[in-house]
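Input record, target 12 of the design panel.
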């Protein structure tokens, strides 16, 4: 098959258009794969943190609506839930009383903010 100059330009243009999307998809796939398996330690707390992190990132992958307020709130609900899930891992495995107190405070604060954001979404057709 002979590739003409025109064909080469068209192919190069298509690759340039596809590359950002392909790069983003590749990055997300690698990021998801990395999030599922903790780097380094393979203990129970590390696995629990990796699972919470992977779930949070998956849940934060929303279909954008073009409404910045709604998109922000929808993404932040998942982000806050991730903080709650990680704080629960700390409470299950952590030993330091100051950090356990911080985890407890994070759970209370994030649950309140999630409730507020869900109410806002319900009010604004989210």
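The sequence produced for target 12 reads:
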């Amino acid at each position: 098959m002979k590739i003409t100059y025109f064909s080469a330009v068209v192919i190069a243009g298509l690759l340039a258009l596809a590359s950002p999307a392909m790069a983003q998809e590749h990055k997300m796939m690698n990021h998801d794969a990395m999030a599922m398996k903790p780097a380094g330690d393979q203990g129970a707390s590390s696995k629990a943190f990796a699972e919470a992190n992977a779930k949070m990132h998956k849940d934060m992958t929303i279909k954008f609506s073009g409404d910045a307020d709604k998109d922000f709130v929808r993404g932040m609900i998942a982000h806050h839930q991730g903080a709650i899930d990680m704080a629960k891992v700390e409470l299950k495995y952590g030993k330091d009383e100051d950090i356990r107190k911080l985890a407890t405070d994070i759970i209370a604060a994030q649950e309140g903010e999630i409730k507020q954001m869900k109410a806002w979404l319900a009010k604004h057709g989210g």
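The helical segments are 5-36, 44-60, 68-93, 97-123.
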